[in-house]
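Page 42, continued from yesterday. The earlier attempt failed because a stray header line got pasted into the input along with the sequence. Redoing it now with the clean sequence only.
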Amino acid sequence: MTQDIRPRMFRRLALGAGVAALLALPLAAEDAPTDEEGPTLMERGAELFFEGLRREMEPTLDEAARLFAEIGPSMRSFLMEMGPALADIANQVEDWSVYEMPEILPNGDIIIRRKDPQPETSPEAQEDGSIEL
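This time it went through. Structure tokens are written below.
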């Protein structure tokens, strides 16, 4: 039985991307003395850190590339066929947070239920027994 590694892979990928984004900020903002002979200690440390990060992330990135190559064509086909209908639904829904996660029924239908069903509004009877529409 194979375990689905996608959630773990995406967590590692997101963590690596976050660390890389933080490290993209200037590492030595203060005036560090530079010598003409080679990189400073700060530059060498950053190079070593990025090299270690690259080695750690390489298996995850390779797996992500394999996964994207595997699902890419089917995802492209799905979006070509269903894209307009999904865009129409997205335009009609104001707040996705009021809906449950989609459910796939045994017959293949997909339903999305409201979390708190809206109360049905029924016409109220007037004092004389008539109903105002």
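Notes: The beta strands are 103-104, 110-111.
Reminder to self: strip header lines before submitting.
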